Amino acid sequence: MDKRDGIFSPAGVVVDLGAAPGGWSQLALKRVGKAGAVIAIDCLEMEPISGVEFIQDDFTEQSGLQAVEQALAGREVDVVLSDMAPNLSGHAAIDQPAAIYLAELAADFARQRLSKTGCFLVKMFQGEGFDQFRAQLLRDFNKVITRKPEASRSASRECYLLAREPVL
Ligand SMILES: C[S@@+](CC[C@H](N)C(=O)[O-])C[C@H]1O[C@@H](n2cnc3c(N)ncnc32)[C@H](O)[C@@H]1O
């Protein structure tokens, strides 16, 4: 997706929400280089990745948000990634609203902290609440595209929404 859509740029500031075990953080770090910054948060532990500032906390809690804000120290964000996924119960009626809630929190953060040219990438599962979430992104960002990367099984409901340029 980065090759196709050009998500990262050298020296960019990236916030990775739901980062463990660190796959996306590692890629982001490679793309932004030493002049950039990657701030990552997860409730779970993550093996240290040199160059990634990792916060172990819950992003839905005030403490988690504050820790990310503190790490940013007033810098604007170029990319917000969210791969946060709730603990799955196996019941769509519980799991889907929980996933949408995490995506909404990430979108709120992105709207508030992204630069004018920034982008927000969120992994989603198509289902109840997906269309409303996408419709809200279309109101809050100038460009929104839906992607289903080759790596994600074609039958799966998993997809990615990429929103660019928050409407100020
Ligand atoms: C699919 S995994 C992320 C994989 C990661 N993007 C990677 O490339 O290695 C989802 C992660 O979201 C985290 N997560 C779920 N809810 C969270 C929350 N409220 N705050 C922080 N992390 C959360 C989980 O702990 C889990 O590690």
UniProtKB/TrEMBL annotation:
Keywords: Methyltransferase, rRNA processing, S-adenosyl-L-methionine, Stress response, Transferase. One of its GO terms (molecular function) is rRNA (uridine-2'-O-)-methyltransferase activity. Pfam families: FtsJ. The active site is at K123 (proton acceptor). It catalyses: uridine(2552) in 23S rRNA + S-adenosyl-L-methionine = 2'-O-methyluridine(2552) in 23S rRNA + S-adenosyl-L-homocysteine + H(+). It comes from the Bacteria. Residues 1-164 form the Ribosomal RNA methyltransferase FtsJ domain. This is Ribosomal RNA large subunit methyltransferase E.
